[in-house]
Amino acid sequence: MQSGGPCKLKVLTPLSTPNASPRPGCHCPPWVPSCNLKAMRFYKIFTLSTLLLTAVLATAQNGDQSQSPIAGKYVASDPLAGVRYDNRYDVSLGAAYARFMPGPNSVYGTDLGGLDLFGSYWFSKHFGIEGNTRYYLGTAGAPAQAHVAPYYIKGPFVSENIFVGGIEWLGPHNKHGAFIPHALFGGAYGNFEQDLRNTPRELVGFYSNGFGPAAVLGGHIDLNRSPRWVFRITPDALYTRYHTNYPAPGTTPIVPTAPRGSYNNWNTAISVGMEYKFHAKR
Known about the structure:
Number of strands: 10
Strand content: 35-45%
Structural class: mainly beta
Number of helices: 2
Distance between the termini: 94 Å
CATH topology of the domain at 89-277: Porin
Low-confidence stretches: 1-26
Shape: elongated
Helix content: 10-25%
Radius of gyration: 38 Å
Largest sheet: 8 strands, antiparallel, barrel
Strand order of the largest sheet: 3-4-5-6-7-8-9-10
């Protein structure tokens, strides 16, 4: 018996003798079962962990091919397995944003919000006819000379309605999504004077109320959520042409901020919403 060490037993090997000097510490020969207890536990835990990790990895690898039983049969659970681009009609509605200049020489741009509605009729595999209406409204920045008496115009509301139609093309696509560019043409109506009260339009420098030509150039970025429902992002470039029906020069003491005439406007817009594909086939 040896004291002072981590082990209490001194085991004599066949080659050792009672008079042999003891080695420092404990010596545990491999043929003694009690000394292999910790090693055996380690091997068991290691083996069990390896088997468990292998099972988890196999389950994760087969996750995309998971199946569920229905009436004794197994069917794929992929929610996009039924995505097809063969619908005849679709419609989408989204929340819209546009950056707009309310006058030909406006210093302050206007951030407009609204709704964006699209409807499509596909007459071939890759081409369709699309109609679009969108409504924007927001506040516009008025120049400093309109802030004082007797006008006190600050942040007047302006609005814009756009009605366009044209051609769209089914671009690159798969079951996950598609890119659909379009070119749409039509008209717009701008309401820029509703909050000006009796303030001269030439003082504020906004466009006059009225109709004008419009164009929408851009496209849809579609992300399929199911065979019928699609998450849609639509960035566009907007073209409109409005006029300034200011009094003739010299007929008013106010110097207009811009001459009379019509002006081209290029602005940016984007909408985010959902599309629904109807069951009718092309």
